[in-house]
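Quick question, first post here. What does this chain look like in 3D?
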Amino acid sequence: MTFAGDQHEDAEDTASNQGLLVDRSSAGGDIVVAGRDVIIKKIVSGLAMLSPHPVDRGSILDEPIFVPPPMRPGGAVPDPFLLADPIESSVLALLGGKSSGRRTVALNLLDAALTDKDREIFELYPDWDKPDADRIPSEPDTGYLLNLAGLREPLDKDFHDRLAEYAMRARVTHTLLIVVATPHVWNSTVIDSRTSPVRIVEIGRPSSLKVARRRIEADSEHAGRAAWLMDDSTVFAGQLHGDEPPAEGVRLADVILGAEGPQDKEALDGFLGWKHKLTDWFGSTDAEAPERRALQIAAAFLDGAQARTVLDAADALLAEPEIHWPVRQGGPLGGAGGSQRCSDAELDYSPDGVVSITKHHPGIDRALLGHVWRERPQLVPVLTRWLSAISQPKGVADACLPKLARVLTTLAESEGADVVLDLTQDWLRSGNVRYTQLVVDVLDQLAVNPVLGPEVRKDLAQWADGHSMPERQLAVVKVCERRLAREYTSVALTRLKYVLESTWRKTVRTADDEKVREAALTVLKSLLGDTDLSARVLKTLVDWTMPENNASEKVELSRTAFLDVFALGDTEFSKTPVPLLLTTEAEHGEAVRELLRDGWQATWHRSELRERAAEVLGRWCDAAEAGELPGDAVEEIVAVIFSAQADVMGGELDRLIAGTAPFRARLRTRLFHVVRETAARRAASSAHRAA
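> Answer (accepted):
Ran it through. Tokens below.
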């Protein structure tokens, strides 16, 4: 499906064609107000949608490099004409196995369908705990990729029913959506494919051999090296059979393009995961091998660090009791120097004192750690204890925590998230601040990982809800302030909500409970002050205040979060998110202020919160008088309290003053005077007490 030549009808012509007559001379103001209200409502409702992440259309793989995969119609009743134009439908499910290049194919299809290159393509991450098709955006003339590659649980019937409704709306707005998933997750058994507007295409892996060939041929300098893939006189021939993941074809192409020649066995070994090199390093029985191996392991964790850091870390590993390595006689004066030790271990020792294991062996750091974890499991607890020792304050690798976090993330990708999560929990139990920082750095990367992310985000939910380990909760709170908040905003906010609700069964909260709660509120306040996130965070806080969203005893502890965040003390308003929220311009500013009005009104309706709410809003009024906050915006918000206060009296007040008779009008006037006189009397009393 393409949109070439599609034009939206002029709004005025459409209204005339449908017989909608508007007297603009008398209704112009109402139309403007109504139109603005519609826009504001759309903005507010849009805050609940999945965040769209822009895709650079110039980066989408296309001819001549792109290799199309084998495709076939999917579903219980395949559409034989579907492959002629896979995007003929507004919603397409692109199903394939792991590492089949589904995302690349989906982006290529969207790019081809949206022939106007000014139209945008966005990727949508599954920012939810339960898949919800109602949260998929549908801006006109826009392409979306919903990437469900990391999901494991099958989609239910409710999701598919709502996705079918979405498809009908998307057809009207000329919106394109491609959902990427495995056949298991897509779960075609709950769909009637004969009636569903969602089309299904199943893809296989494109030939990895063709992927490699096209990559090499696209290189103007070394295009001739594509022949090495099939030339038996080279070491690279026969390494691909065609059914490997396309990423393997990309990797071999990069290796061949960087090789010194057709007989570069070291380059080939790198492609094969450095099996020969690792066998050479870890397979010998040489008496001096443990010292070299300790240095190689240290360099794998600390690649690119200063020589002293790597050498000291290696010595610390040798000193572990299970290794029984004798202390070097002469201390720093004994044995070979650092450059010689590194040379013996085949590490690069640069003139500026930096040690690298990957400079001459790209990727061997990851391969080495995977090898150790699989082939020497007895060493794993030793390495765990060693990592804890070198990363502690004033430890030899104290300044290398980001490096360690990256390596541990890589280790989780190859050996599984549990390997690293178990390690991080041990560190958290120690209560050491530096360990907590390292854990947060690791979780920050794992939580948004395309493959491991869903599993790790589930674990974070359990950690957030488990008040028996406040150190884990504090780690979750810190993670929710980082990349997770920007890429999976709803998930991050939900984890913070779990933290706030975690102590609901406790009759007495400990100092640790209060520390965790204040940390969560502080992060919410910080996110509320982030220009890119503030409106979405505010809407979530307002949603929490609503009794229909929070009906149980447990969630009462998050219902007050809206008030609690604004009640956090600051001596200067410039350090709070309030000025940002009240000065946002145009319709987005109106939407933010409408959310603030809703939040304060819901808060005021709860009698037990009114005193605190009045204190916070009173400070806002003081700031408005002092010119620190915009008076008009504060007045708009405070005015809803008057309405809320009248609602408290409800029908009783209506029974007394409602009506058009002169007497009832006099009563309403009297009410106004009483309110004014009471306010003046209280103000005078406050001034007298202050004097």
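Residues 314 and 409 are 21 Å apart (CA to CA).
Strands lie at 52-54, 71-73, 91-95, 121-124, 143-147, 176-181, 199-203, 348-349, 355-356.
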